[in-house]
Amino acid sequence: MSYALAVDVGTSFTAAAVVRFHQGPSAVPECVPLGARGVSVPSVVYFPEEGTVLVGEAAERRGLDSPERVVREFKRRIGDDVPIILGTLALHPEDVFATMARWVADRAAEREGGPASAVFLTHPAAWGNHRLSVIRDALAAHGLADVTLLPEPEAAALHYASQVRVEEGSTIAVYDLGGGTFDTAVLKKSGSSRFEPAGASGGH
């Protein structure tokens, strides 16, 4: 089945949705149930010294016994040259991010019967070329080479515009009250399916 996958690896939680192409222009995005308790899972990864890497709820449970093997809030450190040390393992934050994204893509593939035809991954608007470059490299190393990186405010604006008519030239304010951050952005609609920043993004 041909479908597009959108992934949001957040600071605290990770979520995803699919759109199936065979449903045509009326296709509605559908959340991918990633966790046993809901559609999202904690952005947590457990790296054993040897064996299977665990993600989300499974990583949280295993981390109760071995908290020193768990990585949280790795998104904040994307682009940081200082590795995350877990025992004898030295991990770059972007590789942990890509591990999470790969796990989500695999869950979607299991559910949909095959890999996505297109993958979109959101990122903070403030990320510059360096962070985007290391993320692309890490994703490619994890088998996700053809990923479209989309700023989070633009993704939110596009979703809003899919539900409410937004005239070209209109301005939209987007705020993202996340689990660990608060970001704001102002965007202007510049085409049928395009939004551009109308100023610098802000966040804490």
Can you summarize this structure?
Helices cover 25% and strands 33% of the residues. It has 204 residues and is an alpha+beta fold. It has one domain (3-203): Nucleotidyltransferase, domain 5, CATH 3.30.420.
Could you describe the 3D structure shown?
This protein is an alpha+beta fold and 204 residues long. The chain has one domain (3-203): Nucleotidyltransferase, domain 5. Helix content is 25%, strand content 33%. The chain has helices at residues 57-63, 93-112, 129-141, 152-163; strands spanning 3-9, 13-20, 30-31, 41-42, 44-46, 54-55, 70-72, 84-86, 89-91, 118-123, 147-151, 171-177, 182-191, 194-197, 202-203. The strands form four sheets. Strands 1, 2, 3, 4, 10 and 11 form a six-stranded mixed beta sheet that branches. Strands 12, 13, 14 and 15 form a four-stranded antiparallel beta sheet that branches. Helix 2 (93-112) crosses helix 3. The mean pLDDT is 87.
